[in-house]
Specification:
This protein is mainly alpha-helical. The protein contains 2 helices and no strands.
Length: about 60
Protein backbone atom coordinates (compact mmCIF):
# COMPACT_ATOMS: atom_id res chain seq x y z
CA UNK A 1 0.00 0.00 0.00
CA UNK A 2 1.46 3.42 -0.95
CA UNK A 3 2.52 5.72 1.85
CA UNK A 4 0.45 8.92 2.17
CA UNK A 5 2.63 12.00 1.97
CA UNK A 6 1.09 15.09 3.51
CA UNK A 7 0.65 18.02 1.19
CA UNK A 8 2.03 21.41 2.15
CA UNK A 9 -1.51 22.55 2.94
CA UNK A 10 -2.13 19.55 5.22
CA UNK A 11 1.12 20.23 7.07
CA UNK A 12 0.13 23.88 7.43
CA UNK A 13 -3.31 22.96 8.76
CA UNK A 14 -1.76 20.57 11.28
CA UNK A 15 0.82 23.13 12.39
CA UNK A 16 -1.91 25.77 12.79
CA UNK A 17 -3.97 23.45 15.00
CA UNK A 18 -0.89 22.76 17.14
CA UNK A 19 -0.13 26.50 17.38
CA UNK A 20 -3.69 27.39 18.36
CA UNK A 21 -3.72 24.65 21.01
CA UNK A 22 -0.42 25.91 22.40
CA UNK A 23 -1.74 29.48 22.54
CA UNK A 24 -4.88 28.26 24.28
CA UNK A 25 -2.84 26.18 26.76
CA UNK A 26 -0.74 29.25 27.59
CA UNK A 27 -3.83 31.53 27.66
CA UNK A 28 -2.48 33.96 25.04
CA UNK A 29 -3.96 35.34 21.81
CA UNK A 30 -0.57 35.70 20.11
CA UNK A 31 2.81 34.03 20.38
CA UNK A 32 4.30 37.46 21.03
CA UNK A 33 2.44 37.54 24.36
CA UNK A 34 4.13 34.31 25.45
CA UNK A 35 7.43 34.32 27.34
CA UNK A 36 8.43 31.17 25.43
CA UNK A 37 8.02 32.77 21.98
CA UNK A 38 11.72 32.95 21.15
CA UNK A 39 12.95 29.43 20.47
CA UNK A 40 9.48 27.86 20.62
CA UNK A 41 9.41 24.67 18.54
CA UNK A 42 5.63 24.85 17.97
CA UNK A 43 5.92 28.37 16.56
CA UNK A 44 9.00 27.45 14.50
CA UNK A 45 7.16 24.48 13.00
CA UNK A 46 4.23 26.75 12.08
CA UNK A 47 6.49 29.38 10.48
CA UNK A 48 8.30 26.67 8.47
CA UNK A 49 4.95 25.23 7.36
CA UNK A 50 3.74 28.66 6.20
CA UNK A 51 6.94 29.21 4.22
CA UNK A 52 6.82 25.72 2.67
CA UNK A 53 3.15 26.14 1.79
CA UNK A 54 3.84 29.46 0.09
CA UNK A 55 6.94 28.25 -1.76
CA UNK A 56 5.68 24.69 -2.44
CA UNK A 57 9.04 23.38 -1.28
CA UNK A 58 11.08 25.50 -3.68
CA UNK A 59 13.66 27.96 -2.47
CA UNK A 60 13.15 31.54 -3.49
CA UNK A 61 9.80 32.89 -4.67
CA UNK A 62 6.28 32.13 -3.57
CA UNK A 63 3.28 30.77 -5.47
CA UNK A 64 0.34 33.04 -4.64
Amino acid sequence: MPEHNETYEEKLDSALIDLQKCQSDHNVQSCYECELCIGCEVRSKYVRSVYESMSKGETGGFDF
